[in-house]
Design goal:
By secondary structure, this protein is of the alpha+beta class. The protein has 13 helices and 27 strands. Helix 3 crosses helix 11. The relative contact order is 0.08.
């Protein structure tokens, strides 16, 4: 936003350029009229996303919104990555961006910049049902060698190829002013000035970079006030992430989105997200995911947490994002030096950690087979001296690895000398807690419950189907723009790996845990069994943690249902989804059997 000229009366500086039509989606081209309440004002405008100056074209007649108003800058040809990652497409889609401001006859600005972006179907600007975001940032703020945030620039070190460059610089000094427009397909959304930074770790060096946007008073609005996400009630956000498709491992782009939907059904703090298409200064920038940012404002919004009392930890060693790491480091040191097999010691830790949340966090990271965890992508938080809770985020390396190439439970309990993707430091909390029989039994029971319910293929398959159909028609354009994925057909073929992973994951992860934790078929008693709504419910008593094969037979000895389950010491409520017709049946678990009847199902 252009700064006010101090010697101009405020009334003169408040001259706002009005557009005859707001930005958004339109089927056909049309004529756009610009106006200002001050008849002496001169309107200057740009079409390349830059802030207008008195040197830019003067508005003197209505603008016909056609290809002649496309940005002439071709910023997609400006190198924004090291040579081995750089990709230039043959051509790109465009929208029409008009930025206008009022000036005096002497060329002094007398009003803030007004920005509108137009996505016109007749010109081929179609996002195939996805919402769209248009970011306008002055070109020098993006591409200047010294200060541009989108280029290797002055901070690039050829000897540190992967983690150097202007785009790796952080902090407020590397935030740049921008204008943000977000439009649903019905043109509801926002249009406001904000700040933008790059985001991500290794992905910043890619041509398609992740970004963060910040609402601040100095830009005109302290919040983004819109209900972006259907899954949460919030309609006001301080910070948001713009997560790139290219951040997803193996060219799929959507693993993090799928994991976020699955995590929402667990006792986890997780991030709302949705796919969209991004245009940067009027040029097509591919498929992105608008997402919450797991920072102190997220905690303030979701938990009404006091910003002055929040601590956010980002590494198991006690690195912190916000507040202080003192209490976390003290807890880590205490856990490392105490025997948690002791119920007294376990009780102390259970007062410091939200055990339910921690168990679900470990189960979900193990289930999703996260290749970039636990040594990376860990975040937990507390308010005051309250219990620590864990946030699931960044599932880009999840839900695609074949089981025989990666044992996620072994990864979560590692004790060796390595440092990535796992380390003894990163597994300390979980390993020590698993020494306690109370915790271990609770973990096994929750694991067993989730494998039968929220993480079963019946529950996870719809999330895969959802994102597949949401972005399928946009993948060809994403591929043409960045060469990632290689093609639509390649993407479709690779997506089958996610579906296959989800389909077989319960059996695979059960096998991992069975092989490392369980003594098979100890003393088992079946205390109760009944069948309703295609689910077999049974109460099974186990002498100790064990694996049990549940077998259901009819009276002719034919097997009609089967599952392997994990049982904790003591009573276990087990649910087995199964289609069983009316009749008399026998449930067998270990050496125990019990008859039950199915009537009227």
């Amino acid at each position: 936003m252009v700064a006010a000229i101090s010697w101009l009366p405020l009334a003169l500086y408040s001259q706002v350029v009005t557009f005859s039509e707001p930005g958004g989606f339109y089927k056909e081209s049309f004529t756009l009229t610009l106006s200002c309440s001050n008849p002496d004002a001169i309107i200057h405008f740009t079409t390349n996303g830059n802030t207008p100056t008195a040197a830019d074209p003067t508005y003197d007649a209505p603008l016909i919104l056609n290809e002649s108003l496309y940005s002439p800058s071709h910023i997609y040809t400006i190198q924004s990555s090291p040579d081995d990652l750089w990709y230039v497409p043959k051509n790109i889609k465009r929208c029409i961006v008009i930025r206008a401001a009022a000036f005096t006859s002497q060329g002094e600005p007398i009003g803030a910049v007004t920005t509108n972006s137009y996505f016109i179907g007749a010109l081929g600007c179609d996002t195939h049902g996805l919402p769209v975001m248009s970011l306008c940032v002055d070109s020098l703020d993006l591409f200047d060698f010294e200060t541009g945030i989108y280029v290797p620039g002055a901070h690039y070190d050829p000897d540190n190829h992967d983690f150097s460059g202007n785009y790796y610089q952080e902090g407020r000094e590397w935030e740049r002013p921008c204008n943000v427009e977000f439009y649903e397909t019905d043109n509801n959304g926002i249009n406001q000035a904000a700040g933008v930074r790059t985001q991500g770790v290794s992905t910043r060096r890619f041509p398609q970079k992740g970004l963060k946007i910040y609402a601040r008073d100095e830009y005109g609005n302290k919040r983004f006030k819109y209900k972006f996400f259907k899954d949460i009630d919030l309609a006001s956000f301080k910070h948001l992430k713009i997560k790139s498709f290219q951040g997803g491992w193996i060219g799929l782009g959507c693993q993090d989105y799928i994991c976020g939907l699955m995590a929402r059904n667990l006792d986890l703090d997780c991030l709302a997200s949705r796919p969209m298409v991004l245009f940067l200064n009027g040029e097509y920038w591919g498929v992105y995911f608008l997402q919450e940012k797991p920072d102190e404002r997220y905690l303030e919004d979701h938990f009404d947490a006091d910003l002055d009392r929040i601590n956010i930890i980002s590494t198991w060693g006690g690195g912190y994002e916000y507040g202080s790491a003192t209490s976390f480091r003290a807890l880590r040191d205490w856990i490392e030096t105490h025997d948690l097999a002791s119920d007294e010691n376990y009780t102390y830790v259970a007062q410091q950690i939200d055990i339910s949340n921690f168990i679900d966090y470990q189960i979900f990271e193990i289930f999703s087979a996260n290749l970039d965890w636990p040594a990376n992508n860990m975040r937990c938080w507390q308010e005051g001296d309250g219990p620590w809770r864990w946030i699931f985020y960044d599932g880009d390396a999840c839900v695609f690895r074949p089981q025989n190439q990666f044992d996620a439970f072994a990864n979560a309990t590692y004790t060796g000398d390595g440092y990535y993707p796992t380390s003894a430091e990163a597994t300390l909390f979980f390993r020590k807690l698993m020494e306690n029989e109370t915790f271990k039994t609770r973990f096994i029971r929750r694991f067993n419950q989730l494998m039968r319910t929220s993480l079963s293929y019946n529950e996870t398959k719809p999330y895969y189907d959802e994102i597949y159909h949401l972005i399928e028609n946009e993948i060809r354009h994403q591929s043409e723009r960045f060469g990632n994925p290689e093609s639509l057909s390649t993407w479709k073929q690779k997506m089958k790996r996610i579906d296959k992973f989800l389909e077989g994951r319960v059996a695979d992860v059960n096998a991992d845990i069975f092989s490392q934790l369980i003594v098979e078929n100890q003393d088992i008693d079946i205390n109760e069994v009944y069948y309703t709504q295609q689910v077999l419910h049974t109460l099974i008593e186990a002498e100790q943690i064990t694996k049990a094969d549940l077998l259901v037979f009819d009276l002719l000895g034919r097997q009609v249902a089967h599952a392997s389950v994990l049982l904790g010491a003591g009573p276990n409520n087990v649910e087995l989804p199964a289609k069983i017709n009316d009749g008399i049946f026998i449930l067998k678990a270990g050496d125990a059997t019990k008859r039950f009847a199915v009537i009227g199902e």
